[in-house]
Design brief:
The complex is a heterodimer of chains A (237) and B (409). By secondary structure, chain A is α/β, with parallel strands linked by helices. Chain A is built from seven helices and ten strands. The chains are: A alpha/beta (237), B alpha+beta (409).
Chain lengths: 237, 409
Amino acid sequence: MAEPLISVDRVVKTYVMGDVRVEALRGVSLRIDEGEFVAVMGASGSGKSTLMNLLGCLDRPTAGQYRLDGHDVAALDANALAALRNRTLGFVFQNFNLLSRTTALENVELPLLYAGVPARERHRRATEALARVGLGERAGHHPNQMSGGQQQRVAIARALVGRPRLVLADEPTGNLDSQTSVEVMRILSELRAEGITIVLVTHEQDIAGWADRVITMRDGTVRTDERRPPAAPEARP
Amino acid sequence: MNLLEIFRVAWRALLRNKTRSFLTTLGIVIGVTAVIAMVTIGDGAKARVQQTFEAMGSNMLILLPGTTTHGGMGGGFGSLPTVTWDDLRAIQTELAAVRYVSPNLRAAAPVVAEDQNWTTSIFGVGADYFQIRNWGTATGSLFGTSDVDAGSKVVLIGQTVATQLYGEGIDPVGRTVRIKGVPFTVVGMLESKGQSAMGQDFDDSVFVPYSTFLAKIQSGLKNVIAGAVMIGADSAENTRKAEEQVRALLRDRHHLPEGTDDDFSIRNLTEMASGVEQGTRTMTLLLAAIAAVSLLVGGIGIMNIMLVSVTERTREIGVRMAVGARQRDILLQFLVESLTLAATGGAVGVALGLGGAIWLASSFGWPILVRPGVIVIAVTFSALVGVGFGLYPARKASKLDPIQALRFE
């Protein structure tokens, strides 16, 4: 069997805040194969955000090993991590994190800018990505001229424009009403159908229901890890 | 991300805060303007001083009879005429470093032409006088040693006098003027020398051979010279030597014992010129240094605003890092922003500084000297200020932890 996309082996993450040591992760082991749609659930403080930061190569584990696409992340320097984030990963945040006073198109172009893609190509791919999330007409709009759902779709376009293998979504529907949440989740499951691996953090059972594997965390450890038979998207809540 | 892209991103970030960017740049504009203006004006003043001294004469010593201080009392030069005609001949014949010697006798009298008269300074001088002062004629010719020996009634007139007597553009050569009732033939009109540093018009004067001056205009004293003696050294390097030789010769001839004051004084114009030049240069340097301080203040302004900008845009930095910006990309972005602020300020400052300096120089009537080196230095310096003061905020931005930056409210 081929190496999994994500392989987390007994990972520990400890933060030192003044005199206090906070053990955010206490020996987490996980394998996520290419093409899975995984939801991570858990109360706040359960370590799921820390896990996401690690999976997103924004942070390195204190102990244990994290291999992403065969690379030992702990062994990589800051530039190599930046390159991984740029080429292999896409992020979707709860608060969208779009650059204000910058058009939707330019927001989507951002990863390509750092990848060194020439302007014409960048423009073409960003336009495609925006069309992909149904915002082809809104390319020239600024984030403050868009609704929350539209902003999150711009963020998804930004996450997928670099053709990543893994999209990490941290409470992507946390700031959205249920109607727009469904739109966003539909786009994510479409991405998954195209073979992109998706890891999603959420509080909501409904949202987790879109995934075919749900991991529950508590006190820095994995409590449950259940797979469900994949269902047709229409059949889902 | 290539450099052009970085510049584009930086430029757009700056345009997002137009007022702030403008005010920040203003600090650099003022600094560079001040430096350029001060240095250019200083150069102009120096050139003006040089011009003035060149107009007075080159390699020139002025020997003034009578001591200027006598037992602590300033008697004023000429108060005690002590230099004799024999002294003058001795200076002329005995001293190696001396090339030209001429008495400089002065009287004020009206010069009368056919239907006009003009009161001006009448100078009695030798033929060497014009060599010492580097003065030639515009029309006609100078008088020579033979005219001096013969006591010829010839006169050279300055351009102001010619204009007053005959009007603009009339050649006075060959005409006759009367001074104290004595007819003189105009043999030449001198070149224009303009004004001295004190505003005295060099062209408002006429020159006759000193022998004729003594015989016909102002007889003076028998053996001593009632005026100054102009001495030309044989080279600029030798003016100092010539001064010492003249002093030694005169002390010897006047039998002054060791330790007593000179009964004459010698002014060394070359040394005065370099003294004044030194003063001007020091002044220029001082002003430029003060101006440079304002440039420094401008740089601190840039640093301040860049720090504010980094804090304000912490989340933007986090987003850029999350999508794959390397530390180097972030560093360059902020560095290029501060560089753009400073360089724009520098360019505007150069334009304003030169404009201001040219305007000031022309209103003072000074020559305008623009040293390209100053412009290069000012622009380079402001760019260095931009990079130097931008480095700290830019490093701060690039060292941000992406997780912290993304959480920043």
